[in-house]
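As a representative case, we now present a protein record of this kind.
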Amino acid sequence: MEAPREPHSVSLKALDLGPIETDDHFLLNPVLTLPPAFGSAYVGETFSCTLCANNELPADTERQVTSVKVGAEMQAPSGTTTLEMSPPDQEAAKVNPGQSLQKIVRFELREEGNHTLAVNLSYSETTVSKDQSASGGRVRTFRKLYQFVARPCLGVRTKVSNLPSGGSDDTQSQAARYVLEAQIENFADGTITLEAATFNPKPAFESTSLNWDAMELDLHHSDKPSMVPRDVLQIAFLVEQRKDGPGKEVTKDGRTLLGNLDIQWMTTMGDRGFLSTGWLTTKKK
């Protein structure tokens, strides 16, 4: 019969630094202990949490915990990424009874699907007698997994329409002109505020915003568009070919590359997100 495992002297907890969505409700605690599976987060936002290695030994213990190390990696659909610790390890950490070693990890969520935060903890445990002599040293390790699903916060649908050149023979009026329209839908379960929507044109083009920021005003947060769940907002940009600019970039099937669209938002809890589309093109000729 296998002997029961001895409990570890050090426990590990992951504390979330922002709101987390669970299956039944939205948890608003600024500091929340994450369970092994904790619902979902949004693509475009930054997952961040504090990893706490806690010495659970009583104050009068003869055991000493040293060389505490915490490591983490994020397993995403496209692969595994080793996460940087903040603050970084500089020397082997000694953690006294009742104290903890804390590290912050961050990871930008760039793809949908299942994600797993894998955390490894190792430490040395020695027995110290009354005369301060150490004996019975050993290294102990364990691993904990935290699973969640990354899902889209925004949906973006785009449309490019040609504008007439004006019928003149001069070079400027013959330059290509387009209107880029985009419909943005809020897929999240809470209200978001659009911080910015920017079109980044290819070198052959320049763009003009036709949206809430078109007047280049110093907008306050309350002046920016808010979107409740399932709200749809339409934005648009005028895209014009530069006079005497470089030539247009054209795909093999005759589509002109115009640029890409960046969207930034903020939730009611202050979490920020960022989405960038692929290259947007004209219709196939």
User: Anything to note?
Assistant: The longest helix spans residues 171-174. The longest strand covers residues 134-152. Helices lie at 171-174.
